[in-house]
# Entry
Amino acid sequence: MARLRVRLCYLFRHQKHVNLDSPTLFNELVQRRKLQNRDGRMVTLADKVAVKAHVADALGSDWVIPTIWHGTKLPEQPDWPGPFVIKSRHGSNQNIYVRDHDPDWRLLHKRITKWGRQPYGKWLDEWLYAHIPRGILVEPFIGQEGLLPVDYKIFVFGGSAKYVQVHLERENAHRWIVFDRDWNRVSAPTSDIDPEPPKALARILDAAETLGRGFDFVRADFYEVMGKPLFGELTFYPGSGLDKFNPISLDAEFGRHWLDAGGL
# Structure
């Protein structure tokens, strides 16, 4: 059943059949990882609470965004300094940015309760998410002037950082541009002017490679706030292997790097 779901989701999204037996494309390799790879390390490293201790040991505590609170049920009337971010421990794109000094906690509780009830990752057969403890964490809002920081997602193959996916305006007009490690754009031209690289790019790439050692592929996400690099998260199924590349040739290019690093 899982194999059939993966085939159907891939066909619907990419309008072609997935090669699960001899994958060559990046998005095909993500599908095969979802079905076959049961490396328990991925569970710990995708856990937004547990990964912080690992990153502090590997990079230093100054790379880690502090945790204001974490648990399984949000307190009825928290008294945290704002602004702050509420995240699910076990899921992706389950974030609430609280900028108000007096938020509607009843509404927030309602939204957050749904996170714990949803079988996150089941429909897309993202195995590891079923094994992360359900929970919530709260972090300080690290953006400036109320805006989310730029998100730098580093694609690391066999411990070598190859590409930087730069996510812009994630809250309102989300889009991304892909650069190689030398900050040459490799994704298709858009109306966006190429952003300047982060001041800490070299440190971010080194940090991504440190965290990516021992894996054929992982995506390591970072922010830069006032010149200071901060760790975001580690992802083993980027876009669940359903995001389209532009140009499409990048799917094969990323796939070659993954296969050269050992593949799955």
